[in-house]
Amino acid sequence: MTYKLASSLLIESGSYMEKRAFERIPVGEQVRIFYRNKIYSGTVLNLSETGMFVGTRECFPLDAIIRIENELLNVLVRVKRLTEMNGYYDGVGVELSNPSQNYLKYISSLNFYKS
Asked: Residue 76: CB partners within 8 Å, gap ≥ 6?
């Protein structure tokens, strides 16, 4: 795993392994990403009570606040990391600082169906 700084962005190449406080749940939900009056597309690949990883080719600044939504999700998140594969951005790790009760219920329902 290597990291490089590009235009004040932390970019990650390779695998990312760390101990997490909450288990990540694989989902595959198509979402819209709202940032600076523009709409981008992405796929929530996994999520937890405090964060998610969204597959997208877009590059958002670290610590940017973005909105992620679809029919089931509508959350404001902070960009914490970007991933890159073969010279292209392929995803963004985001953090929910104050998850809503609706979001936590959604996570709980996913855990129910996972069991």
From this structure: 65, 66, 67, 96
